[in-house]
TrEMBL record:
Listed name of the protein: Ig-like domain-containing protein
Any GO BP annotation: synapse organization
Any GO CC annotation of this UniProt entry: neuron projection membrane
Domain of life of the organism encoding this protein: Eukaryota
Domain Ig-like: 52-144, 160-252
TM region positions: 6-23
Pfam family, one: V-set
This protein's UniProt keywords: Membrane, Transmembrane, Transmembrane helix
PROSITE patterns given in the database record: IG_LIKE (PS50835)
Entries under SUPFAM superfamilies matching the protein: Immunoglobulin
Species of the source: Nasonia vitripennis (Parasitic wasp)
Length: 286
């Protein structure tokens, strides 16, 4: 048997043994009442530090942005140079019990997945390019000890959502302040920027029109406030919030061609006539 044939035969045996371990783990998960992510216990007690163990502080659950490359990390301590002999670190997708990687080799035809490992590092990384909603689920990092050790990482692929409060139409009196609030939800990281458009043009905050400002607050959700003072009929139209990492959202603003003060004065102009009618009625009754 050639050296190449021996290596292929050995790899096939390792892959088969890992598949058996995965099937056993899959059965264990369905028969247990454990919860996702780090709440699963390892098959091997981690209190013993004489052999390999998982550093869970560096092997956490991941929330990924739809379509943006993400990385699942598994840090295995005390593995030493045993990997060069018989111990292997593998990644398995539990949705279909699919073996993805063994060591630094990728065992799937899906080219979005790739094994990454630096010989000087304890980290065994699963790279996923262009993650999709279907990639959401549990991924198992497995060490081929006896019994095998497993650490579970939950991947959640999300797509940010953009909302504008008060839509789809907003009516503003002439001379009032247009106050639009745009919220970006379900984003694992804040957008790098948010642009506002009026109709098809990007709003310039230092234009000759003046009175236009934007305030953006970043956190678990990102909120952008657009303020347009002294609204005029020419400020009517479609306003669009454009985050860098989410779909745009629009609202149509209608600026009414009447000042609020004029409307108030118009209402007060009817009051003297009402008082006159009441006075006449009282005189007649008297």
């Amino acid at each position: 048997m050639t050296a190449h044939g021996s290596a292929t035969w050995l790899s096939s045996i390792v892959a088969f043994l890992i598949f058996i371990n995965v099937a056993q783990t899959y059965s264990m998960l369905h028969n247990s009442s454990g919860k996702g992510g780090d709440t699963y216990s390892n098959a091997l007690d981690e209190t013993s530090r004489t052999g390999p163990y998982f550093d869970k502080s560096a092997s956490k659950n991941v929330t990924a942005l739809l379509g943006k490359t993400t990385y699942l990390n598994c840090r295995v301590k005390n593995l030493g140079n045993k990997t060069m002999s018989h111990l292997q670190v593998s990644w398995v997708r539990h949705r279909d019990i699919h073996l993805l990687t063994i060591g630094r080799y990728t065992y799937t035809n899906d080219q979005r997945f790739r094994a990454i490992h630096n010989a000087q590092s304890d980290d065994w990384v699963l790279q996923i390019k262009y993650p999709q909603h279907r990639d959401t689920g549990i991924y198992e990092c497995q060490v081929s000890t006896t019994p095998h050790m497993s650490h579970f990482v939950h991947l959640n692929v999300v797509e940010p959502v953009t909302e504008i409060l008060g839509g789809p139409d907003l009516y503003i009196d002439r001379g009032s302040t247009i106050n639009l609030t745009c919220i970006v939800l379900h984003s694992p990281e804040p957008p790098a920027y948010i642009f506002w458009n009026h109709n098809d043009a990007i709003i310039s905050y230092d234009s000759s029109r003046g009175g236009v400002s934007v305030v953006t607050e970043k956190g678990d959700s990102t909120t952008s406030f657009l303020l347009v003072q002294q609204a005029k009929p020419t400020d009517s139209g479609r306003y669009t919030c454009n985050p860098s990492n989410a779909q745009p959202k629009s609202i149509t603003v209608h600026v009414l061609n009447e000042y609020p003060a004029a409307m108030q004065h118009g209402g007060q102009a009817h009051q003297p006539r009402l008082y006159s009618l009441l006075l006449c009625l009282c005189l007649l009754l008297y």
